Amino acid sequence: MRLRWRFGVIAGLFLAFFCSYPQLKMWYERGDEWNGHYAYNDIDEVAYAAYVRALIDGRPRKNDPYTGRDDSENTPQPESLFSIQFAAPYTLAIPARIFGIGAPWAMTLSGVIAGFLAALAVFWFIGRLTGDPWFGMAAGLGVFAFGTLASGEGAILEVLFDGFSYPYFPGFRRYIPAMAFPAFFVLVGVVWKLLGTKDGEGEPGSERRQTLLILLGIGCFAYTVYSYFYVWTTAAAFLACVFAVWLAERPEGWKRDLRVLTTLGVGCVLTLIPYAYLLSQRSDTMDHVQLLVHTRAPDLFRFPEYVAFAVLVLVIAGMALKWVEIRDRRVLFTLALAVVPFVLFNQQIITGRSLQPIHYQVFIGNYVAALSLFAAIGTLWNSGFGQGRVLPKLACAAITFIAVIWGVVECHYTVRVLDWANDHRDKALPIAKRLEELAGNAPDRHRQTVLSFDGIVADDLPTVMPQNVLWARHQHVFAGLSWEESKERYYQQLYYSNVDEKGLDYLLKRDFVSQIALFGWGRHTDRLSSDAKPLTYAEIADEVKRYGEYIQTFGVKQATHPLLHYVVVENAENTDLSRLQLWYELDAGEMIGGHTLYRVKLRPGLGL
């Protein structure tokens, strides 16, 4: 069957619009005052953008934009989440460097392109599975428009309940997992094409075509491996589920199918060998951030599992009504997809290890569950009512329309959560551009340090400027600093901000950013880890005591490691610079928008 790709393009264009909605809203609200920044969809995107900026700048794969520490013969760096998951950022950085595009535009375009291609990939798969391009269009849009709903989060929590509308289209957090999505769904389509029959449900083709499909599948899997952990492990679970279902049910030609799957699987395993080596070179900080939990407790109450369970019930009902048979390859493939969420959330029963399952819930497992639902509906509808009638087309058009409406609802409710932050970041962008100008082409520009008293700006500056920052919320996710060094930098930030022991005590009891900075992820919420333990008053008291001792012993060594070069102050905050001025001389300052930029130098006589 030849697909009518215009239907897939329609789905892709709608999803591309949803992925560009935050940016369009920023352009509309900022108007002529827009300074050129991208609107982030998730607060973690600043770290990804900073890494892309570093790659565009020509820095090595193992770089740390927040500390300026790059891998070299004299200063070897360990692997980080970013250097291991390098495929997606290089996909952005290489063309951006060639065409002279900065990180903000690279981030903006990545979401749009990823959304369009992901919708097209789902259209291709579902269109081939059902033989219906109309339903393929509905699925290509619906899987992603309803994806947040399938995770049990997003706008529905505010529309129907007294909840919080967040996150916005989580699968399209740029560039992770967004850039890995098209590869994952193409892999699903490739596997179906390899396992389909010649009667219109799929076309294995010649040996040459089969070989090309296997190579394409391996390439897609490899791209997910070096892009995002949660996507590639889902891809591996999907392949294992397909193999298990085929082995259990043994449809006609199953031996050939298993040989094909085995060949594909071996190729995929080979791509993991370099990955395993890179992982063995990871930094200790990476383990601290990841919150690995040793447990064998089942996890059966995640919303994607509810959706997957509904798919299983739907398929069983279809077989009871004799619309489909268990050995129908479409049914088997749908069942394999439906089993994937249960595997993702319960693999720890066998492995004994659980790694932040919330990421499976919102970044990939929900979309696989939604995909299995559309596969089930399409298969049952196709088998029970036939094709080519007006009613199926009207139904597909209705599903597409509802998906568009719900996509708009998701955008409206979830994007507002970050409106203020995006507005604030764009207003402060001229500061980053000015720092970029001041850095020039100096060979040590990455090692020049900026102290920003504005936390949002500090996190965002490395997206544009080449200098590093004293401290930022996402600094510890890179490998440039050990955990103890990261904590000390936060101490320095507090010291220069004139925060005393009582101030830190207040922050640790109320501010999750401070809790993360000094105790790591997972202590402020149980969302990331089932083993999360809230901070105790004793722990807070001990940390406050250590900080008090740090203040008392603060000297030239602390003031010069790192040595500050620039200071950014938010004018509306009336920041007290007295402690900073004990160690540094500030120039007259340069007022840029709502901030003032100071060039600083160590006071004479203090030495280095």
Walk me through this protein's architecture.
The protein is of the alpha+beta class. It has two domains: 5-418, no CATH class; 425-602, no CATH class. It is built from 27 helices and ten strands. Strands 5, 6, 7, 8, 9 and 10 form a six-stranded mixed beta sheet that branches. Strands 1-2 form a two-stranded antiparallel ribbon. It has a two-stranded antiparallel sheet with strand order 3-4. The N and C termini lie far apart (73 Å). The model is unreliable at 198-202 (pLDDT under 50).
Question: How many strands, what sense, and barrel or not for the largest sheet?
Answer: 6 strands, mixed
Residues in helices, as a percent range: 55-70%
Count of helical regions: 27
Report the average pLDDT across residues: 92
Tertiary shape: elongated
- Give the beta-strand count: 10
Brief digest:
With 608 residues, this protein is α+β, with helices and mostly antiparallel strands.
Task: Describe the secondary-structure layout.
Elements: H1 5-30, H2 45-56, E1 63-64, E2 69-70, H3 81-84, H4 87-99, H5 103-130, H6 133-145, H7 147-150, H8 156-159, H9 180-195, H10 207-225, H11 229-249, H12 254-280, H13 284-290, E3 292-294, H14 303-320, H15 329-346, H16 348-351, E4 353-355, H17 358-363, H18 365-385, H19 390-415, H20 419-439, E5 449-452, H21 455-460, E6 468-469, H22 483-496, H23 501-510, H24 512-519, H25 537-553, H26 556-559, E7 564-570, H27 578-581, E8 584-586, E9 590-592, E10 595-602
Parallel strand pairs: 5-6, 5-7
Antiparallel strand pairs: 1-2, 3-4, 7-10, 8-10, 9-10
Helix pairs in contact: 1-5, 1-6, 1-19, 2-4, 2-5, 5-6, 5-9, 5-18, 6-18, 6-19, 9-10, 9-11, 10-11, 10-12, 11-12, 11-15, 14-15, 14-18, 15-18, 23-25
